């Protein structure tokens, strides 16, 4: 069991979409993972160096270009395993180059994750274990990483402060997204702070009270 103090993170907005890429690490071992390296790899790698952490893994919440665009290059350059998302996002991975052209991103390459993730799985960095919840709706293969000990959840584009993820992309599903939030995020607890894919952090309790899309 790890204590809350052992999991640390730093969030770095990347790409023209200002996507929240997070570096998470274990205080004891200084082993780290990067969540959603969508682009601007020099900025991410400079942050890794400044933090003095040992980058060991890439974790993906989903495979939209602003979250996954830099994944293949970073994995290849540094010999890192790619963990996640769920298989439901394979078609988004296959289309990364096209996504890049469509949105004016630098060339993005498709890849094959080292490990697909499923609801109830865990991921581990150093001595810190995070739970995986499959939260489809924004994309069919979207996953969320939750540390009960640290009361933190990295939720990608499922939920934002005051808003929710878009569901008008291919294979998005509005009802499914609402169910993911209510059935899989809310049980993590009102005090849990979530790090969204864009914008500021908030708590699940705050969103349950005030978010117009999902309030109680």
From TrEMBL:
It comes from the Bacteria. Residues 205-216 have a biased composition (Basic and acidic residues). Residues 18-198 form the Metallo-beta-lactamase domain. The keyword Metal-binding applies. Residues 197-216 are annotated as: Disordered. SUPFAM superfamilies: Metallo-hydrolase/oxidoreductase (SSF56281). It holds the Pfam family Lactamase_B. Its cofactor is Zn(2+). Keywords: Hydrolase, Metal-binding, Zinc. Coiled coil: none annotated. The keyword Glycoprotein does not apply. PANTHER family: HYDROXYACYLGLUTATHIONE HYDROLASE GLOC (PTHR46233:SF3). This is MBL fold metallo-hydrolase. It comes from Ottowia pentelensis. The lineage of its organism: Bacteria, Pseudomonadati, Pseudomonadota, Betaproteobacteria, Burkholderiales.
């Amino acid at each position: 069991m790890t204590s809350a103090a052992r999991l640390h993170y730093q969030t770095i907005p990347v790409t023209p979409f200002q996507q929240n890429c997070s570096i998470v690490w274990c205080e004891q071992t200084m082993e780290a993972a990067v969540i959603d390296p969508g682009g601007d790899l020099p900025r991410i790698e400079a942050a890794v160096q400044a933090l003095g952490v040992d980058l060991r893994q890439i974790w993906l919440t989903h495979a939209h270009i602003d979250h996954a665009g830099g994944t293949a290059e970073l994995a290849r350059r540094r010999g890192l395993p790619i963990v996640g998302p769920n298989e439901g996002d394979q078609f988004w991975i296959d289309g990364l180059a096209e996504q890049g052209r469509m949105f004016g991103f630098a060339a993005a390459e498709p890849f094959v994750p080292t490990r697909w993730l499923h609801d109830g799985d865990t991921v581990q960095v150093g001595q810190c274990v995070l739970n995986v919840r499959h939260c489809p709706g924004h994309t069919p293969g979207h996953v969320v990483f939750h540390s009960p000990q640290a009361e933190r959840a990295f939720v990608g584009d499922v939920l934002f402060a005051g808003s929710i993820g878009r569901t008008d992309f291919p294979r998005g599903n509005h009802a499914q997204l609402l169910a993911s939030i209510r059935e899989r995020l809310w049980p993590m607890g009102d005090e849990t702070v979530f790090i969204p894919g864009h914008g500021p952090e908030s708590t699940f309790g705050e969103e349950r009270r005030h978010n117009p899309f999902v309030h109680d």
